[in-house]
Amino acid sequence: GQNLIFGEKPGSVDDHTCNLFRESMVLFGGFRNGVRSNQLSKFSFKLNAWTIIQPKGEKIPEPRAGHVSAVYTNKLVVFGGTNERNQRMNDTWLFNFDSLEWTCLN
Question: How many Cα atoms are found within 13 Å in the side-chain-facing hemisphere of 34?
C-alpha cells in the first residue's frame, strides 16, 4: 500500500528543530528554501497530516536557525540560534500549545 501524507508540508528545511508533543512532531524554525523561518508546523502521526500552527498574539520569536528546543509539559522551549543578520541570539521563548501564545523570557 501507498502511504499518503496530507496537509501543508513544510518543504525543504534544515537547521531546524523537531520535538515530540502528545501524538505529533513539532517542527520550528530553520532555513526553509534558504531563508530563516519562525514558522511552527505540526505533523500528526494519527492523521498522517501536516498543519501550520498559527500563534495568537503579537509576540513571536524572530526567524532563526541553529537554535535548540525542547518540550516541557504543554510548552515548547526555544533558545538561541542565529537571526537573519547571522547574529547569535541569546533569547528564550516559550510556546504554550494550549493558548497558542509565545512568551519571551528575556
Answer: 0
Enumerate residues 6+ apart whose C-beta is below 8 A from 22: 97
Distance CA 51, CA 103 (A): 22
**Residue range 19-65, pLDDT digits in tens:** 999 999 999 999 998 899 999 999 999 999 999 999 999 999 999 99
Contacts (Cβ under 8 Å, ≥6 apart) of 58: none
Task: Quote the percentage of the chain above a pLDDT of 90.
Answer: 86
Report which residue type is found at 18. C
Gap between the Cα atoms of 102 and 94, Å rounded: 6
Are the C-beta atoms of 50 and 39 separated by less than 8 Å? no
Tally the residues of the chain.
106
Rounded (5°) CA angle 5-62-100: 55
